[in-house]
Design a protein that fits this description.
alpha/beta; 6-stranded mixed sheet; 3-stranded parallel sheet; 11 helices; globular; binds 2-acetamido-2-deoxy-beta-D-glucopyranose; transmembrane; transmembrane helix; Protein FAM151A; Menorin_dom; membrane
């Protein structure tokens, strides 16, 4: 091979490399644009309903590390207009409430609908909700059951739906199954019935078993006890599923000894901190909890402005320019 030929070859190689690169760049740009507009509709990695939310969102590249604080929620995505708003919103997980049509009235039917008590009617059934959410989004599903009679018929619908559409994302099944802080009467969903139904009908899920709660502003220290968390661990400790315990955020810090004991009992356990609409959740309490747990152990389903205030501090990382002193 003579020298000029080699040079010619190199030039040709360079030109073709440049062509390949420019094609690649064009493709990447157009893919990025497509990704933005079709984000929820793009083909997605296969996943399953019992899978971990953080693994799922990592696969989708919605988050870049396993941290529950990065997961964003839409609350009470129940009736059609709320559901549609939620589907369009840039959130990763939908929390919705299920009950039976006409629940506890003479007109009660076996049809699960999307409504929060005291509502017992809705323009949205669970069946329609599932179809819309599965077809139009890749959002994580959390269903909150307020009574035991709703659970069986709802799980039947999940099973039926999974035979028609692939449920390619995590599904959380939530119910308050134990009597919790400050609640005078036992209004919990029957624990053994709930857990048995889930095992029997739709075991491929994450279970979200909670305590009924009442927050008393005058007694901010009345909260979850060691007995409560031990009772819960006794109920779910041997189950195969991942478990996330919903915990009322305003009561979490004074109960931290007990909640962190609970977390330490199993790698399958996490907490989901939630906020009552008017609960005075304090950023410093959240920071304390964040500081004393692993990022993948806690989800935060909280209202603004507390959520943003908390995130700003908790997720703050000094910019490199600041670190190197390029700014005065
Ligand atoms: C749907 O729910 C939202 C939020 O709860 C409520 O503001 C709205 O009035 C409801 N719409 C209908 C048609 O019921
Ligand atoms: C139950 O249904 C009957 C007949 O359809 C109706 O007249 C009645 O108002 C309903 N009751 C409630 C509580 O919705
Ligand atoms: C839950 O239901 C079972 C029957 O399925 C019953 O034996 C048990 O007493 C109930 N538990 C509570 C706390 O009501
Ligand atoms: C759930 O489904 C996945 C994928 O089909 C499977 O690998 C897994 O074993 C199932 N888990 C349970 C608890 O059934
Ligand atoms: C009770 O609450 C106060 C104020 O929130 C706090 O400083 C104190 O440590 C709490 N005591 C216990 C036993 O949790
Ligand atoms: C977080 O933990 C570190 C070390 O344990 C401690 O120095 C810091 O004060 C804690 N911050 C908060 C907000 O609790």
């Amino acid at each position: 091979m003579d020298c000029s030929c080699g040079r010619k070859g190199a030039v040709a190689a360079l030109i073709s490399a440049a062509a390949v690169i420019s094609v690649c760049v064009t493709l990447m740009v157009s893919l990025a644009v497509r990704k933005q507009s079709l984000e929820d509709l793009a083909p997605r990695p296969s996943f399953y309903s019992g899978g971990d939310v953080l693994d799922y969102l990592l696969n989708l590249r919605r988050i870049d590390r396993k941290d529950g604080l990065l997961v964003t929620w839409y609350h009470a995505a129940n009736n059609k207009s709320s559901m549609e708003e939620a589907l369009e919103a840039d959130v990763m997980a939908l929390e919705s409430d299920v009950t039976l049509e006409g629940y506890n009235t003479p007109n009660e039917t076996e049809k699960p609908i999307m409504a929060h008590p005291p509502d017992v009617y809705s323009d949205n059934t669970l069946q329609d909700w599932l179809k819309a959410v599965l077809r139009l989004s890749n959002k994580v599903i959390k269903l909150d059951f307020k009574n035991i009679r709703t659970v069986g018929p709802s799980l039947d619908i999940l099973v039926k739906t999974s035979s028609e559409l692939i449920i390619d994302r995590p599904v959380w099944l939530n119910a308050d199954i134990l009597k919790g802080p400050n609640v005078p009467f036992d209004i919990a969903v029957n624990a053994s019935q709930f857990l048995t139904l889930v095992q029997k009908k739709f075991p491929n899920c994450t279970i979200s078993p909670g305590w009924t709660t009442l927050y008393l502003p005058l007694f901010p220290n009345k909260t979850y006890t060691q007995n409560m968390v031990e009772e819960m661990h006794t109920l779910v400790g041997k189950l195969p599923q991942q478990i996330t315990f919903p915990v009322r955020a305003v009561m979490a810090k004074p109960a931290w000894t007990h909640l962190s004991w609970l977390l330490s009992q199993s790698k399958r356990y996490s907490l989901t901190l939630w906020q009552g609409k008017t609960d005075p959740v304090r950023v410093e309490d959240l920071l304390f909890i964040r500081n004393n747990s692993k990022p993948e152990q806690i989800y935060y389903d909280l209202y603004e402005p507390v959520l943003s205030q908390f995130k700003k501090i908790a997720l703050y990382q000094p910019e490199p320019s600041a670190k190197y002193g390029w700014r005065s």
